[in-house]
Amino acid sequence: MSEKPEHFIIDGKRLDGRSRDELRPIKIELSPLDRADGSCYLEWGRNKVMAAVYGPRELHPRHRQNMTGAVVQCRYNMASFSVDERIRPGPSRRSVEISKVIRQAFEHVVFTKFFPKTAIDIYIEVLRADAGTRTAGINAASLALADAGIPMRGLVSACAVGKVDGEIVLDLMKEEDNFGEADVPIAMTADNRITLLQMDGRMTTEEFYTALELAKTGCTTVYELQRQALIEKYGDEYRAEGGSDE
Amino acid sequence: MERKIVVPGDVVSDNVKMSGSGTYIRGDEVCASVYGLVNAGVRYVSVIPLSGKYIPQANDRVIGIIIETTHSNWIVDINSPYDGLLHVSQYPRRIELEDMKKYLKVGDCVLVLVKEVDAAMKVELTMRDKELRRLTDGRITTIGPTKMPRVIGRSGSMIRLLKSMIGCGMFVGQNGRVWISGSGNRIDLAIQAIRYIEANAHTPGLTDRVQAFLKAKEKTMQSRMHESRDNEEW
Amino acid sequence: MSSGDNTVMAEVQRDHLFNLVLKGERADGRAFDEFREITIETRAIDTADGSAMVTLGDTRLLVGIKVQPGEPFPDTPDKGVIIVNIELIPLASPDYEAGPPREGAIEIARVVDRGIRESESIDLTKLCITEGEKVWIIFVDIHVLNNGGNIIDAASMGAIAALLTTTIPAARHDLGEDTPLPVRDIPLAVTTIEFGGEMMLDPSLDEEKIASTSLIVATNTDGSISGMQKTGAEPLTIDQVMRVVGMAQTAASEIRKKFMEV
C-alpha cells in the first residue's frame, strides 16, 4: 500500500489533478448481460463494477415471502483479484454490511407492492476496486433496475464526499479515502431524498453541512449521466433506423 | 407518432387526474414509475414499459409449459414470477386423478386461459374454453411481455400481416410466448420477423417496415433457391 | 457439462432441436464442429497480476490471476502451487445461487486445473523461492458474468490467456525484480456433447440442457492430451471417444491461433 502523501491539495488541485468539486470520469454501458433481466456495467475512475437485476421472481424459501409486496435483496461482492491483496471468495463482514445498506438504499424507491411473494435481486460485482465501490455499485444497480422494467419512484444516484487537508472534497480517490480525515458515501433520489448515508471519520457540523451540499451537486451530475444513458439506449437505435433493414 | 422516452421519476403531467398505468403521483405532478414510452391520451397519460415481467390477470390467454404434476393439479410455468395451477377438473374432458400423466406430462406446452388470480397471487388456469388445448407441433418463441402487443398490432393488424405474408399459424400469448405452426422455413421466417419486431418495438410505423422486411427476406430466399437450382443444372 | 440450468424445456423445443440434428443442423446455424465467436481481451484488470476477459457467444467471464508467496505442499517442497477457483455467481444466471461452490463449479475448476497442471505448461520448479519454505502460489480466479453455455471451454481459454500475461510481482514482496510468468504451452479444454447420436462442439445453453453426455478433452500444441472428463450418465463407445479426441485436437489448434494475437 502506498504511503500517506504530505498534502492532498496543492494549488487548489488534488493528487489526480481534479478540483475539489469534480467527479472522476464515469462510463456507463447498459444491458451488457443477456441472462439478467436488467444489467449495467459502470466504470468510475479506476473502479469497474457490473450490476445485474433478476426479478420480480419467485422467492425461496417460501417463509421469506411477503404477502404484501416484493422483497428486495442485494448481494455486493468483490472479485478476489479486484484489489492488491487477493480477497478470499465468499462474503466478508464488510461485504455483508455493504449489501445491507445498498439494499436499503433501494427499498424505499422500488414499488414493491405490485409483486407480492416475489424477490427482486440486485447483484453487484466489483471487478476492479478503487475508492467508492459501493457508490459506483449503487449507480450501476439503479440503472439495472430501470433496465429490468422495475417500477420505481426514481433513479438513485450516489457519490462520496470527504475531508482531506481540512477541506471538503467530492468523490474521494484511493489515497484520500485511505488517509483522509473523513469519508461520507451518500445516495439520494433526484429530488434529494437521502437513501444511504454512512460516515467514517470526523467533521464539524458546519463541515458536514457543506459536505452534504457538495454531495447533492455530485449526485445531480451522476443522475444526469444515468438519465442520459437510458435515453440514449433507444435514441441511438432510433437514429440508426431507416438505413439497412437488419 | 414518435413517443418520448422517460425514466422513472420524470414528470409526465401536471394534472394528477391524468395518472395512468406506469405512473404515480408525487405532490401535484404525475411521474413515470417505469423506464418506457409516454402514451399521452385524452383522459390519461401512461408510460408503456420497455421491459418487465408478465403479471397474470384473469381472462389472459397464455402459453404455458407443464413443470410438475401434483396430486390433482398440473403446475404450469407461464413465463411469470407466478406459476399457474391447472386443476384436473379444468382439463377439457373428465379424467381420473391417476390418469393425469397420460394427458399432460412435464415439458408439454399448453394454450390456457387465466381463470382467476387471487390477492395472494394464486393463479388458476383452465383449458375449458374454445381453442384451448395442448400444443403438440410447431415451435414456441418468447418476446418481452411488454413488447408482445406490437406482435398483435392495432386490432390485430400485425399478426394478420405475419400470418398471411409468411403463411403460418400463430398464436400470441399475453405472457409473451408465441406459438408458430407450419413448415420449418416458414417458422424460421416468422421467428426472424418477431425478433425484428422485438428490436424495433419502441419505434412507430412498424407494420409497414415489417412488410418491407418480409418482402426483402422472401426475395433473398427466392434468389438463393434459384442459385441452387442453377447449380443443380450444371 | 451442465453448469446448472433447472428450467423445464418445452417438449416442442426439444423436438425441434432433435429434428435439426437429424438434418445435420443446429439452432444457431453452426456446423457441428463450429465454435461460436470468441473474443479474448487480456490485461483487463490492472489490480490482477494477469487477467483476461473472454466471450464465447453469449458466455462471458473474467479471469484474474494473483501471485503471492506462500508455503509449498510438503510432498513438493521445491514446486510452486496453482489453485484454480471458479465462482458461478448469481449475477451470471437465474439458476446460480449465492453460497459456497457446488459440485458443478468445483468440477469445472478441477478440470481446468488439471488441464493446465498436467500439460506442464507452467514449470512449477521455476516458482520455488526457498525450497521447503517459500514458493509462489498462483491463484487463478474465474468469475463468470453471463452463462450462455459451455463455461468450461471459455474458462480454459481465459485461464491460459490470463496466465500468459501474468507477471510475478517479486518487487512488491521484496523478492527481486518482477518477471513474466514462464508459460511453455497453451493447453485448451474442449467440450463435446453427444446428442441424438451426433457429436457437437461448443454447446449453447439449450444444447447443454438436452445433451445426454459430454466429454471434455484438454490438449496441447503437440496434440498430446493433458486431461479428460466425461460428464453425464449416458455411456460412450470407444469409437465415439476417439472421434471426440480428434475433434478436440482440431478445435484446440484453431483456437490456439487466437492466442497468437494475444
Question: What can you see in these coordinates?
Answer:
The complex is a heterotrimer of chains A (246), B (234) and C (262). Chain A has 246 residues and is α+β, with helices and mostly antiparallel strands. Chain A has a single domain, classed as GHMP Kinase, N-terminal domain (Ribosomal Protein S5, domain 2, 2-Layer Sandwich), CATH 3.30.230. In chain A, 29% of the residues lie in helices and 30% in strands. Chain A has four helices and twelve strands. Chain A has helices at residues 93-107, 133-147, 174-179, 205-240; strands at residues 9-10, 13-14, 26-30, 38-44, 47-58, 71-78, 118-128, 156-164, 167-170, 182-189, 194-197, 200-201. The model of chain A is unreliable at 237-246 (pLDDT under 50). The relative contact order of chain B is 0.11. The mean pLDDT of chain B is 92. Chain B has three domains: 5-49, RNA polymerase II/Efflux pump adaptor protein, barrel-sandwich hybrid domain (OB fold (Dihydrolipoamide Acetyltransferase, E2P)); 61-135, Beta Barrel (OB fold (Dihydrolipoamide Acetyltransferase, E2P)); 139-222, 2-Layer Sandwich (Ribosomal Protein S8, Chain: A, domain 1). The longest helix of chain B has 28 residues, at 206-233. In chain B, the strands form four sheets. Chain B has a five-stranded mixed barrel. A three-stranded antiparallel beta sheet of chain B has the order 1-5-6, with no helix packed on it. Chain B has five helices and 15 strands. Chain C has one domain: Ribosomal Protein S5, domain 2, CATH 3.30.230. Chain C starts with 10 loop residues before the first helix and ends with a helix. Residues 1-5 of chain C have low confidence and may be disordered. Chain C is 28% helix and 29% strand. In chain C, strand 2 (50-56) and strand 3 (59-70) form a beta hairpin. Classes of the chains: A alpha+beta (246), B alpha+beta (234), C alpha+beta (262).
Topology:
The complex is a heterotrimer of chains A (246), B (234) and C (262).
Chain A: E1 9-10, E2 13-14, E3 26-30, E4 38-44, E5 47-58, E6 71-78, H1 93-107, E7 118-128, H2 133-147, E8 156-164, E9 167-170, H3 174-179, E10 182-189, E11 194-197, E12 200-201, H4 205-240
Chain B: E1 5-6, E2 11-13, E3 23-26, E4 29-32, E5 36-40, E6 45-49, E7 61-69, E8 73-77, E9 84-87, H1 100-103, E10 109-117, E11 123-126, E12 133-135, E13 139-142, H2 148-152, H3 157-167, E14 169-172, E15 177-181, H4 184-199, H5 206-233
Parallel strand pairs in B: 9-11
Antiparallel strand pairs in B: 1-5, 2-4, 3-4, 5-6, 7-8, 7-10, 8-9, 10-11, 10-12, 13-15, 14-15
Helix pairs in contact in B: 3-4, 3-5, 4-5
Chain C: H1 11-22, E1 38-42, E2 50-56, E3 59-70, E4 81-87, H2 103-119, E5 128-130, E6 134-146, H3 151-164, E7 167-168, E8 179-180, E9 188-195, E10 198-201, H4 205-210, E11 213-219, E12 225-231, H5 238-261
Parallel strand pairs in C: 4-6
Antiparallel strand pairs in C: 1-2, 2-3, 3-6, 5-6, 7-8, 9-10, 9-11, 11-12
Helix pairs in contact in C: 2-3
